Amino acid sequence: MKPKTICLIGLFFFVLSYIMFSNSAAFEYFKKPVDFAHWFNLIGACLLLSFNNVFPKNRLNSVASVLTALGVVAHIGLCTIDFIMWSYGDNEAARSALSEHLSNTPSILFPFVVVGPSLLFVGLAVHAVNFIKTHTISALMVIVGAPLVGFSFFILKNGILMLLSCLVFSLGLVLLLHRKEIEK
User: Fold this and answer.
1) What is the DSSP string of the chain?
2) How confident is the model over 71-100, as a mean pLDDT?
3) pTM here?
């Protein structure tokens, strides 16, 4: 399978997971019989690693590739934590105890919950910086959409805005994947 196709499949699963995350009432539905939202997020994040192979190779791409890879690793960790939380079902005491334990363990909290998953968005946004002069609108969609996903979810607590930000971010990546090279 071609890397561009893998990127598109990854974006599909990633956006699908954000659709599920965006509506908290419906999100509970997607957690039965398995946690589909987090499985789709995990699969999507892993497939987004293919973006490291489709963009031009240069120093900026090397930095972006490392950030993207670290973000994927962090997404794997975060999804694992979320699967464990899901496995507790209605046992709020166990979920609360695990949350408290994670909050008191900075070596897990920061790389896998607070900072790490954002690196996937940062890495892909850094990839987009390569195209700021030639494909300005598409690049800006990625660069602006990336921080808006986190801002809308963690600061504004707005699932719909988070989904819209993810859609803008993803559409920008799709447009960059299918860009026409400008002759020099």
Assistant:
1) --HHHHHHHHHHHHHHHHHHHH-HHHHHHTTSSS-HHHHHHHHHHHHHTTHHHHSPPSHHHHHHHHHHHHHHHHHHHHHHHHHHHHHTTT-HHHHHHHHHHHHT-HHHHIIIIISTTHHHHHHHHHHHHTTTTTSHHHHHHHHHHHHHHHIIIIIS--HHHHHHHHHHHHHHHHHHHTPPPPP-
2) 93
3) 0.90
